[in-house]
Design goal:
single chain; alpha+beta; Beta-Lactamase; six-stranded antiparallel sheet; 7 helices; 65% helix; rod-shaped; disordered N terminus
Amino acid sequence: MFLREDRAPVWAIWLLIAFGAVQPVAWALGVDFPRHPLAFVPLFVVWIALLVLAALATRKIAALSHRLTQQERAHGETLSEVDQLQTQNAMLEVLARSTDVSLAFQALATRVARLVACDRVGLALLSEDNTEFQTYTARVHEQERRSRPRPEIVFKVERTVLGQVVKSQQPLVIANVKDVAADFLDANILITSGFASALLVPLISRGRALGTLNVVSRRPDSFARHHVEALLPIAEILAVAWDAQQMHMTVGRHRTMEVMSELTLSVAAEINSALQTIIGHCDLIGRSHNDDALARDMQTIMGQAQRITGLLDKMRNAANDRLRQANATIREVGIAVSDERR
């Protein structure tokens, strides 16, 4: 419509030229018009001048129209970039206040929907053992919105579109979900829920896919490559946030395991000290008395004490093994730990 409105002055100029061409012809065919050939010269000169001026005006208007179109396109791209930056900034602010990625996702779903027009925004987070997804869905329309996200369907990695995107680590645009519904469980559920097209973007942090950011629409063929470009920065932020949340949880478990192991080692040392005292006294009593019955009793007590000592050794070894496992897990996620040897 923009170009059509800009071409209106061009058509008006050429209509005037046409009118200017018809009028001399009408005069020439008139009865009272002089028949001398030179009488037509001024008319043709005027007509040619009008044609030249019209051509120049047409070129000028076309150049202005092209320039305005480029400026309008650039303005639209700038607005899109500003909206995207605002969304990223809002996401960082939410994540700075809360380490819960699902809460941040729920709070920013409407902004994501402004970047990419859709009916639902989804988040699928991969479990630590990489075998299943926990999914969350955010309603983008105010009358449907929830105050807090709720975990919804748990999908296995196998035979799901989510799993395919995580394995390939590449965005996927599904123009018509019906085309893949027969092969994938999650696509089949989208069809039964009334959605016709989908866009899935992987959450990648440190070269590892941790889940997907998804948008779905009730209309077929609703998403294109430029929508992928708009969602990639959002997916990167969510991926880093989810990775950080998992690291925080891993560190918390490590600290708890470390405290429990330290307590176990401390208690085992105290019990072992008491047992050694019992064993020493039993040995002294057995040496100072020649009573066979007493000697048998002392031997029984010492045997049980030594058995407890063996159990304590097993407890210490198990505690040290747990500490080594926790340290190995922490090193895998890139957190420095102490290399103390017990």
